[in-house]
Amino acid sequence: MKLLTKTNRIYLAFSLVIYLLTAVAFYQIIRLVIYEEVENRLRVEKRDFQTYVRAHNAWSNIPYFVENKINVTPVVGRGARGEEFSDTLILNRYDHELIPFRQLTFYQPIQGVVHRVEIRKSLIQTYRLIEVMTVAMMLFLGLLLAGTFWFQGKLSGRLWYPFYDTLARIKGFDLSSGASLTLDSPQITEFRELNDVLQKMADKMQQDYRSLKEFTENASHEMQTPLALINAKVEQLIQSEQLTETQTHWIESIYQASRRISRLNQGLLLLAKIENRQFNDSQIIDLAGLLTEKLTDMEEVLSFKELSVSMQAMKPFDVMLPPALADILVTNLVNNAIKHNQVNGRIELVATTDKLCLSNTGGQLTSSPERLFERFKKESTGPDSVGLGLSIIRQIGDSYGLSIDYQETEGIHQFCLTRSQP
């Protein structure tokens, strides 16, 4: 959910609560004011009634109180009481509908007898006035809420435009392209400071990326040349007939160490290139078909180690990868399955459109499965293993949207590739 959407929803919910409370409070205030006015008029009618009674010492149903209803009833054996206001309903004799009235009850002695006097005033016009005022108030508040919400959305969109513009430019920024990140200098101080920080970070990242890229390229060329020369000279020494057995052993040790350094250098440089996305020629590749071809190419090695291969549900498993990395990925998977297999073992390949699994027989795992993909972590103790094969596989997967899962069940080691969820 976007920040503006979340903010607008919170603002709308808060405004609705405030407006509803305001509407209820407004209704109660109007009702109290109108009721107070009605009660004041009833008190005026009470004084008129009392004035009439004192003047005539009697009461007759003359049309003195035209606007109101009045009911005078003698009360026997009761003393005088104070006045009391109440609401009541009276049936209209014309349309037989109940009409609301506000009633004032008080006690007045007439000719020595206490009478209960009830003066009523119709509230139907008052209720209609309250209803009209409430509806009008709700309508105006609703229009105000809608207008405020619309205005705030437009205003927020304009205020936050520099932020979304910066976000779009950052999304399109590519370190490997060589183009620098260019950000505007908006008028809003916070966004301007944010752009300045991001600009400095992007420039520093580009500088570090160029430095690392130059280092890996230089190391790839400059370090491999002397290592290749050392290996060539050592091979010549090994073929010499004038060496003693001890010297031959020392030279073989030097040769193995030199080859190991060469493989370590190649592996670490490859990991650095993958992390820096220096492989830009991605295309759709069927990893299932590529694994099948690799197993076919390794047929002599498989026969030598007496390994059987089975393939099931062979459907294309298409992924977006640079061809060079795809070849490295399947080569490392196959080499790992062969290297850690056992005599008369088997390799099984299962491919579907959503999952690709390569399994092999082998010994029990001696370390934690979570650590298999760490750099320089290896199960084999042979001199040919440098412990980077599975790390390279994991790095390729992380960089190009592939999940690499491993599980071991009763001596069956299985590596599965699936597409990562976006």
Topology record:
Elements: H1 3-56, E1 69-74, E2 84-91, E3 98-110, E4 113-122, H2 124-159, H3 161-171, H4 189-222, H5 224-238, H6 245-275, E5 283-286, H7 287-297, H8 299-304, E6 308-312, E7 318-321, H9 323-339, E8 346-351, E9 355-361, H10 389-399, E10 402-409, E11 412-419
Parallel strand pairs: 6-8
Antiparallel strand pairs: 1-4, 2-3, 3-4, 5-7, 8-9, 9-11, 10-11
Helix pairs in contact: 1-2, 4-6, 5-6, 6-10, 7-9, 9-10
The secondary-structure class comes to alpha+beta
Helix content: 40-55%
Largest sheet: 5 strands, mixed
Tally the beta strands: 11
Domain count, please report it: 4
Spatial order of strands in the largest sheet: 6-8-9-11-10
Shape: elongated
Q: What Rg do the Cα atoms give?
A: 47 Å
Catalytic activity: ATP + protein L-histidine = ADP + protein N-phospho-L-histidine
EC number: 2.7.13.3
InterPro entries: HATPase_C_sf, HATPase_dom, His_kinase_dom, HisK_dim/P_dom, HisK_dim/P_sf, TCS_sensor_his_kinase
Organism: Spirosoma radiotolerans
Describe the structure.
There is one protein chain. The protein is built from ten helices and eleven strands. The protein has 422 residues and is an alpha+beta fold. The chain folds into four domains: 150 residues, no CATH class; 57 residues; 51 residues; 137 residues, Heat Shock Protein 90, CATH 3.30.565.10. The protein has a five-stranded mixed beta sheet, with helices on one face. The protein has a four-stranded antiparallel beta sheet with strand order 1-4-3-2. The longest helix is centred in the N-terminal third of the chain and has 54 residues. About 1% of the residues have low confidence.
